[in-house]
Amino acid sequence: MKVLFIALPGIGDALLSTPAIHTLRKHYPEATIDVLCMFRGTKDILDHNDDINNVILWDFIHSSWFKSLRFIISIRKKYDASINIYPQNRREYNLIGFLIGAPKRVGIKYLRRDKRNFSWLMTHRILENDSLHCTEENLKVLSFFNINESDPPPLILNVDPKVLIWGEKWLESSSIEPNDVVIGFHAGTATFKNHIKRRWEPEKFSKLAEMLMERYNAKILLFGGKEEMDLCEKINKVAGNKCIIVQTDSIMQTIALMRRCNIFISNDSALMHIAGALQLPTVGIFGPTNERYVHPWKTRYSIVHTGIECRPCFYYSPKPLTCYRIPSEHFKCIRDLSVEMVLKAAENFIYNRQK
Predict the structure, then answer these.
(1) What's the CATH number of domain 161-354, 1.10.10.60, 3.30.1840.10, 3.40.50.1110, 3.40.50.2000?
(2) How far is Cα 265 from Cα 222, in angstroms, rounded to an integer?
(3) What is the Cα–Cα distance from 57 to 112, expressed in whole angstroms?
(4) Which helix (H) or strand (E) holds 249?
(5) pTM for the whole thing?
């Protein structure tokens, strides 16, 4: 059997599909399992996954429609089954799955904007369930392969040993000692579809860093992609330039350094899921998105949110993130989240570590 997982969203969504990939491999050890993705970072985190035969990278965003169509034709009808991972509620993703032409095309019947996004082009669908984690949704589609997993596995994330050696040298050069309390921050998020509004204010990250450094002599590592370095510099400047800004050349190098963190504090982002995959105690900062879908998987975690009555309001659809409160209260769910709330969640992990 040849199966293609279509994982076109970002790194976090692809990572949340790895338990399903692992489970399929366990039940069909001789199968060819490939993954199609369109971001270099996604390919990097999947390349060392032993459950996967091939990771296929194609940049649908920046390639012409003609080149993309030619690429799809090159892999058309080479697979017995394809699986559109959850969530991929966009017509483009469903069209790509249809054009690849596997006889069995597995996906989700979405509760919102389903018909207009062509998920009916799949031959086998399960109904979306708002009470399930994304990982559980991905596992449920395996029922079409006669698999019902009662004990979901953790996220699968393997790191190249050479990169781990690089990480050890970086930590040594940054004067991070074995007994130091090291806390990672990620203040960024995706920016598409107005998701930049999910970010906690950088000034609050700065204040949190100051309090953690003062109380626990913590070393604060500021993580982010190249496009988030200005954000990291802003946080560091307000915090008295006492944090350490992490600049790496790849997501794998970032992961090698994240492994050293005793705690990871993050907006709802791909790095939050990577922290979960690394089994780091994780504090997730949530505004309008639904933590039930995307809380850190199979690790110790704490979700911090305001509990405002209108959240969570974001569900999976191509619709941009929008706030329906009056303009002066736009995204109140994230703006009203205090430094003290996040500090308390972090301190619970620090106290447990010190016992």
Answers:
(1) 3.40.50.2000
(2) 10
(3) 29
(4) none
(5) 0.93
